Amino acid sequence: MKRAIAIALASFLAGAAAVTVPHRMGWGQIGLVALAIAGGALAAWLATRLIAEERSRRQIERARRQLVASVSHDLRTPLASLRLLVESIDDGVATGETRDRYLGEMRTHVEVLTGLIDDLFELSRIEAGEISWTMRQVELRELIDDTVAAMRAPAEARGVALAAELPPHEVLASANAEKLQRVLFNLIQNAIRHTPADGSVTVRARSAAGGVEVEVADDGEGISPEDGNRVFDPFYRGEESRRDDGAGLGLAISRAIVEAHGGRIWLEGAAPGTRVRFTLRAVQ
Fold this sequence. Notes:
- It contains seven helices and seven strands.
- It is α+β, with helices and mostly antiparallel strands.
- Strands 2-4-5-7-6 form a five-stranded mixed beta sheet.
- Strand 6 and strand 7 (274-281) form a beta hairpin.
């Protein structure tokens, strides 16, 4: 009997598709063999689970280290500049117009640090589910028109044509207008930044199955397939040409806001250029 159980258990752990039960075994003995097999299955499942949890723990630790390194980098640069500017003013090296210019640069660095800290705080709150937004019926055409109008001046300053292509009928979504406009500002600003002079950025909206779909498209340099799956990660800035544009939190915050609305955001294939699309729930 012990030999039969050992054979059955060993066969299971070895990956045998079937276990041969010796003849002349009673139901009680067959039950013990089944119990042994079940025990082996449980042990194998636990081992697989432990391996998966260890792998997940390592991935989380790696992501934490990358986040700390990114935050440290984005804090260190303006802080180092602030220190040099303060020392120059304190030592009397900077006087008159130079002192005034240094004070202006200090204000800029302080604004950068404030914006970074505010973005980190907002992202952490959204991802933790600590939100108390009021969802209302939002007419997207009006919201998009207002946002495009507000962003037209910086677009024209870079020689980029910014326009909205909207349907003649209402496009209604259930959303928080302020947070949704934050998403639009982030996406349009990012598109303008990576579109060359004489290029264009276009914002579109349409009704889709069970909701609405919004698109911000540009004819700029585009995003490589390697970067495409990570552009919505915090602090990820991709290739060298995209690494001088701040902390890299705009798209991460946009994704968090869209997902908090019950929608999703993604990169749609485009050549040339980039198309970012996101969905929202329709008004019930």
